[in-house]
Write a structure and sequence with these properties.
The complex is a heterotrimer.
Chain A (H helix, E strand, L loop, with lengths): L1 H33 L15 H10 L15 H12 L13 H36 L4 H15 L2 H24 L4 H5 L14 H7 L4 H16 L2 H8 L4 H39 L4 H10 L3 H29 L7
Chain B lengths: L9 H16 L3 H18 L40 H37 L1 H15 L3 H11 L9 H14 L3 H14 L3 H8 L4 H38 L10 H12 L5 H28 L5
Chain C lengths: L1 H10 L10 E12 L2 E13 L4 E5 L6 H9 L7 E10 L2 E2 L5 H7 L4 E4 L3 H4 L6 H13 L3 H14 L5 H4 L9 H13 L5 E5 L7 H18 L2 E6 L2 H4 L5 E6 L2 E7 H6 L4 H8 L39 H5 L5 E4 L2 E3 L4 H5 L4
Parallel strand pairs in C: 3-8, 3-9, 6-7, 7-8
Antiparallel strand pairs in C: 1-2, 1-4, 4-5, 9-10, 10-12, 11-12
Helix pairs in contact in C: 5-6, 5-8, 6-8, 8-9
Classes of the chains: A mainly alpha, B mainly alpha, C alpha/beta.
Chain lengths: ~325, ~300, ~350
């Protein structure tokens, strides 16, 4: 077990290292091909004073001569960047010159809050629907559940969100405030945008909407595993042992169904990250997603890279946790 | 017992698998409806002239923002947009870039994934290590994120004169982060197949590596890959729309459903909901059709859990 | 013994210890398949006494496994439904009892060993946990004590180094050892009736013999009633006391094992016996039963065996044969039971 964990950890570190280098190389290439993003600091197209430009270049670590040579991997700045990362220095934004590390300390909790609601929505809804469909296998309910989840999955998250924001949010909020008042939970929950005074309440609806990402996949997985477990020989054995139905479900079905659920969440997490980019952008939630959204629109390469590094870190971490959970849940892969 | 049964050639088994799958599929009404929707969309992409006689680039300012009050009749069956262009024509002509983009990405992704997966699985060793590591690295970055990265780092002015120039950048970015799933499935199927009796037999008879890979192993590997293709096409169309909303996908003045959607959101709030609703409806319908088709295909190819 | 009586009195009011241990009387089970009702068991009857072994023999699809599941009360409902008959334990009809009573009887009084131990054991729990579960659920035993009992049981069924293997998982055992674990689990609460549903079919021939011997030994030690369900008459020849032969969902012949081997009274049994390879028949071609087992959804008219029967006459296709007894304790559902018995056919 210990050796397996260590091997998986080293593998994850190696992957992250390669991802970091790749991101750095792409950015260097972009600077080499398109020219200096430090110019953005001065805004507009007019050429700034060379001395000042040099100063700004140094500030953003773009003063290395390697940025002049197309194809140069810029190893020295890469080492600098890694050292900076290790010391918690993630650079500053070109727009407004703010410390990125500080921004992250605000943004990451917001995105995590969003994911709490998304994952809960995804797991609860797909569990209910998957179980329901499995009990009515091949009948009308089964087909309806399948069709509905596929439809929900076919509508892109940001379009559900846009539709909600433009069409449903305002009348719902007005209606709710008329009954419960604007400071109540209900008065805030339907808001079309994020309100920092209600960091949990106003994130519920976007969280639920992001949770529909992969609903069809997840429901399908759960339906399949339920069918497999309900009809399995070991459940029949458990019944022959005279166990109560409740105990059979808890001890013999749920644990066996956990594996596909964990796989599904691990697999869909990366897609939820993508969903968060547009969701946070549209709803104005100050999180990692909006940071990437804005960085793209303001052409801040460094910010895009930091954002993607965090996202890559999260994906690697989640897949590591998934693998370790497998090992904990299924003795058959414990010592591999 | 096993030495008595002659290994059934891959081609024969595959043939019956595919024809069985086809037979199951065409009996399902949802598949037929999805197929009709896809046929309509593909026709729209191939022959836009069949659906509209207007030129989407001919716009008259004084006809701007005409609501489609004269449903499906009159000069502008779906009204006009903010610049006075016929909206039906814009919509129809926006289909081709969307569909061509999605098909390009899927073809490139599947081809790359199949080749890398087969080579990795068949030869093993350092080649497998290298490809598997690349797989690990790329899979960490979701398709949308990867495309965002590439497109925002290398954004430049692109002329939108030809279809190729319109879709080249997003197609490249999406393909770069789209091949991993196919590679993984192919590699797994290759590992499974390469030790089967009929492959070993072919090897003993002196078949070349390439012949074994593409004649004997590929037909097996292609089954799990095919099962996820339609759903993935839907995903690509959605991702294209997201990129367009972010402003880094297909660049206006060229049109795609994504571009229409991103423009439509600006007008939907102001009461011109049809500018948002039509591209939305068309996109959702298409993606839904692809997903339904894919779901049925997966069931047909793996009948165990129907 | 005293404890057992008390427990029966608790769970089975009205239990009569003079009545047969287990009596299956005209049991009928139907399955709902695509809106149609298909009979799987069409009147199975047999009796099991304490300390005896009954072999239920039949081809796959003859309803023998469904019968055992109906007796256990673990039939999948739907699609399966018990439509008639009785299953009496100590004279008390179990089919009248509510599910909660039946649940306490399972494991406590009747236990079952399934064919494929690999899939019948939950892969995610240790064998010790799965055996101990019975003590913890039915007897309220603590975790430690349950584990100790599990070790004892594993030891009893001949698993070497039981104390160390009790924490192992099913996949870590060989096929034969896994089946021993299954048997240990079934024996945990000292049941009076043990049903073994094709317990050796998935095993190697040498291991088959070991498992059979184990079952026989334990049955004798504990004076249990044992029902051996099998498709192979040869396997049960030296373990069983009585035989019930099933065909198309009904018992077609019932007798002591020697009787059946010496003088079968049903053409189907006769054909089955001829299909057993024999050392004294080397060089002769093995006989097979022509045709296929009937489709339960559309059974042949009259005697369901008549299309494959070497002794069939017009009468067989027209009339359902009665239950005849050519000798004492030897019954057969054949128009010509007497003639077959006396080898005139």
């Amino acid at each position: 077990m210990g050796r397996y964990v260590i091997r998986r950890l080293l593998q994850a570190l190696l992957t992250l290292g390669i991802v970091l280098f790749l991101l750095h190389y792409l950015m260097a290439l972009s600077v080499q091909i398109r020219g200096n993003p430090a110019l953005l600091f001065f805004g507009g197209d007019r050429a700034p004073d060379p001395a000042m430009l040099e100063q700004v270049e140094r500030l953003y670590g773009l003063d290395s001569p390697c940025y002049e040579r197309v194809g140069d991997p810029c190893l020295l700045p890469f080492v600098d960047r890694l050292q900076g990362f290790a010391q918690g220095d993630l650079g500053t934004t070109l727009n407004g010159n703010r410390d990125v590390a500080q921004l992250l300390s605000v943004y990451i909790p917001n995105t995590l809050r969003l994911f709490v609601f998304s994952v809960i929505t995804l797991v609860v809804v797909s569990m209910l629907l998957g179980t329901w469909a499995a009990r009515h296998r091949g009948r009308f309910i089964d087909h309806t559940v399948r069709g509905t989840t596929i439809l929900a999955d076919s509508v892109p998250v940001f379009l559900i969100l846009l539709t909600y924001v433009y069409i449903a949010a305002v009348p719902l909020t007005r209606w709710a405030r008329g009954i419960w008042g604007s400071e109540s939970f209900m008065g805030q929950v339907f808001r079309p945008n994020y309100n920092p005074d209600y960091p949990w309440t106003t994130i519920i609806i976007p969280g639920i909407i992001v949770g529909t990402v992969g609903l069809a996949t997840m429901t399908r997985l759960i339906r399949a595993s339920q069918l497999e477990n309900l009809g399995s020989d070991f459940v029949r054995t458990a019944r022959a042992k005279g166990l109560k139905p409740m105990r059979i479900t808890i001890v013999h079905v749920i644990r066996n169904s956990m594996i596909p659920i964990i796989t599904g969440v691990g697999f869909l997490f990366a897609f939820m990250l993508s969903g968060a980019v547009l969701t946070e952008g549209v709803m104005g939630i100050p999180g990692m997603g909006r940071m990437i959204f804005q960085a793209v629109q303001r052409q801040e390469g460094n910010l895009v890279i930091v954002g993607l590094t965090v996202s890559a870190f999260v994906v690697v971490f989640v897949s590591l946790v998934v693998d370790l959970l497998y090992a904990a849940l299924d003795p058959r892969i414990r010592y591999e | 017992m096993s030495e008595l049964t002659a290994p059934v050639p891959a081609a024969e088994r595959q043939a019956s698998l595919w024809s069985d799958a086809l037979r199951t599929m065409i009996r399902r009404p949802d598949v037929i409806i999805a197929g009709l929707v896809l046929l309509l969309v593909f026709t729209m992409a191939a022959f836009p002239g069949l659906f509209t006689d207007k030129d989407p680039t001919v716009c008259r300012g004084r006809e701007a923002k005409l609501r489609p009050d004269t449903w499906f009749t009159g000069d502008h069956p779906l009204g006009t947009d903010a610049f006075g262009c016929d909206f039906a024509a814009t919509l129809v002509h926006g289909t081709r870039p969307t569909i061509v983009l999605a098909l390009t990405v899927i073809i490139v992704s599947v081809a790359v994934g199949l080749v890398l997966g087969i080579y990795a699985g068949y030869y093993g060793g350092w080649l497998d290590t290298l490809i598997s590591r690349a797989l690990d690295v790329f899979i960490v970055i979701p398709m949308l994120m990867g495309a965002i990265l590439i497109l925002s780092l290398f954004r430049g002015r692109v002329s939108a004169d030809t279809l190729f120039e319109t879709i080249a950048a997003p197609a490249l970015a999406l393909s770069l982060f789209g091949w991993m799933e196919f590679c993984r499935y192919t590699r797994a199927a290759t590992l499974e197949t390469k030790n089967l009796d009929y492959v070993v037999a072919a090897k003993c008879l002196g078949a070349s590596d390439r012949r074994i890979m593409f004649k004997h192993i590929l037909p097996n590997a292609i089954v799990p890959v095919t099962a996820v293709v339609p759903t993935t096409i839907g995903g690509i169309i959605v991702t294209e729309a997201a990129l367009a909303v972010l402003g880094i996908g297909v660049q206006p003045p060229a049109t795609s459903w994504g571009v229409l959607l991103s423009k439509g959101t600006e007008w939907a709030g102001g009461g011109y909901v049809y500018l948002f609703a039509w591209p939305l409806g068309l996109l959702v319908l298409t993606v839904f059709a692809f997903a339904t088709f894919g779901d049925a295909l997966r069931d047909a190819l793996d009948p165990k859990l129907r | 013994m005293a404890e057992t009586i008390r427990v029966i009195g608790d769970t089975l009011p009205g239990a009569d210890l003079n009545a047969p241990l287990l009596e299956v009387d005209d049991l009928r089970v139907e399955f709902q398949v695509r809106g149609k009702r298909v009979p799987a068991v069409r009147g199975a009857s047999f009796t099991l006494e304490r300390g005896r072994t009954l072999a239920v023999v039949g081809e796959s699809g003859s309803g023998k496994s469904v019968t055992s599941q109906a007796v256990m009360g673990i039939l999948d409902t739907p699609p399966g439904h018990i439509t008639g008959g009785a299953v009496r334990l100590h004279g008390v009809d179990l089919l009248d009892k509510d599910e909660e009573t039946r649940r306490t009887i399972r494991g406590n009084h009747i236990a079952i060993v399934f064919q494929d131990a690999l899939s019948a054991l939950n892969p995610l729990w240790s064998v010790g946990f799965q055996i101990g579960e019975l003590f913890r659920v039915h007897r309220g035993t603590g975790r430690k004590e349950a584990r100790r009992r599990a070790v004892e049981l594993l030891d009893l069924v001949g698993i070497p180094d039981a104390a160390n293997r009790v924490g192992d998982y099913p996949h870590q055992f060989s096929g034969g050892m896994r089946q021993r674990v299954m048997i240990a689990m079934a024996l945990a609460l000292d049941p009076e009736v043990l049903i073994a549903d094709e317990p050796t079919t998935a095993l190697d021939v040498t291991v088959q013999a070991q498992i059979m011997r184990l079952l026989k030994r334990i049955q004798a030690e504990r004076n249990m009633g044992l029902i051996l369900i099998t498709h192979d008459l040869g396997v049960v020849a030296d373990v069983a006391d009585d035989v019930a032969v099933m065909y198309a969902g009904e018992v077609v012949e019932r007798a002591g094992i020697r009787e059946v081997f010496k003088r079968p009274a049903h053409p189907y049994t006769k054909a089955l016996l001829r299909a057993i390879p024999r050392v004294d028949a080397v060089g002769r071609e093995l006989e097979v039963i022509g045709g296929l087992p009937p489709n339960p959804a559309s059974l042949p008219s009259g005697c369901p065996f008549h299309p494959r029967c070497f002794a069939a006459e017009d009468k067989c296709a027209a009339e359902v044969p009665p239950w005849l007894e050519p000798a004492e304790n030897h019954g057969s559902r054949c128009h010509f039971a007497q003639e077959v018995y006396t080898d005139e056919r």
